[in-house]
Amino acid sequence: MHAVLDRDGVVCHSGPTLQKVYDKTDLIGTKFLDLFDVLRPRTINDMGSLLGTAGAKLHLRKSNMPQTALKGVLVPLPDTGGAIVNLSFGISIMEGVRDYALTEADFAATDLTIEMLYLIEAKSAAMEASRKLNLRLQGAMIAAEEQAFTDTLTGLKNRRAVDHILPRLIEHGAKFSCFQMDLDFFKAVNDTHGHPAGDHVLQHVARVLVEETRSDDCVARVGGDEFVLLFSGPKSRIQMSSIARRIIDRIETPVIFKGAECRISASIGIAVSDDVDPLCADAVLAAADSALYQCKNAGRATYAFYAPDHRCDEIA
């Protein structure tokens, strides 16, 4: 960047890059010291004192916004009384590129600024490539974690997910409930209609469970025909009874597979966190399983609540 000044310090010619920095301002005919504030040397206020800095490094700042810092060197012109001022951004080159959308076309091919621009461009490209790679790795990690916590047949969560979520519910300290559910007569479906029919029934049960729960509840298949449901937040026994009964009633509806009726039912053991002492993950699952065992003995297609005295109440 350069500007040619006449004997009065008025710009009579400017380089294209300097003109680009000043955008729509017409530099020709404007006093140089109106365009720039000379920060060092101090007390530069006219052309005479400006010519006195010949050969010394000038520290300047644009007088309008953005007030970009610049470096400069003045060289007097013989005979005319004028001068040429050569300007550069120095260490402010990054701000200059950003503020004025400068490219390598705005600098001479021999200007060291070109090398810096190439380095900046290479750094930006490397950072963008790193960002995209990090996003891909993060996506792959999330997908792997999701896969590790998902039952591939039903799309529900699996036992590993329960082992992860249940301790967090306990640590949170809020009341929650746990349903341990087992399908009745499921073995007969596999024996009579084959494993594809059994898989179809399991997928149907999974849809029922998802539809009867909230998005923030945990619904997991933890074994062949065994399921665990974790309900966060307080629920009354009436609410839990209603959920259990709806699930059982819907699961008892025959499932059609290739024209054949597949008939199953379900038994559900319910443990409420307030009734389990000591409260730990194993104890909660054991309590719900104990209530489930009582359901099986009571004739199946029922639900029951675990009681602290190790008996079960409200078998229905």
Total of helices: 10
Largest sheet, if any? 6 strands, antiparallel
Helix/strand order, N-terminal first: EEHHEHEEEHHHEHHEEHEEEHEE
Gross CATH architecture of the largest domain? 2-Layer Sandwich
Strand order of the largest sheet: 2-1-6-5-4-3
Protein architecture, described:
- The mean pLDDT is 88.
- This protein folds into two domains: 2-102, Haem NO binding associated domain (Beta-Lactamase, 2-Layer Sandwich); 159-313, Alpha-Beta Plaits (2-Layer Sandwich).
- The longest helix has 37 residues, at 112-148.
- The chain has helices spanning 16-21, 32-35, 47-51, 93-100, 112-148, 159-172, 186-193, 195-211, 237-252, 281-297; strands at 2-5, 11-14, 36-40, 57-62, 69-76, 83-88, 176-184, 218-221, 226-232, 255-257, 260-262, 265-272, 303-306, 312-313.
- The protein contains ten helices and 14 strands.
- The N and C termini lie far apart (89 Å).
- The protein is rod-shaped and about 115 Å long.
- Helix 7 runs antiparallel to helix 8.
- The strands form three sheets. A six-stranded antiparallel β-sheet has the order 2-1-6-5-4-3.
- With 316 residues, the chain is an alpha+beta fold.
How are the secondary structure elements laid out?
Elements: E1 2-5, E2 11-14, H1 16-21, H2 32-35, E3 36-40, H3 47-51, E4 57-62, E5 69-76, E6 83-88, H4 93-100, H5 112-148, H6 159-172, E7 176-184, H7 186-193, H8 195-211, E8 218-221, E9 226-232, H9 237-252, E10 255-257, E11 260-262, E12 265-272, H10 281-297, E13 303-306, E14 312-313
Parallel strand pairs: 12-13
Antiparallel strand pairs: 1-2, 1-6, 3-4, 4-5, 5-6, 7-9, 7-12, 8-9, 10-11, 13-14
Helix pairs in contact: 7-8
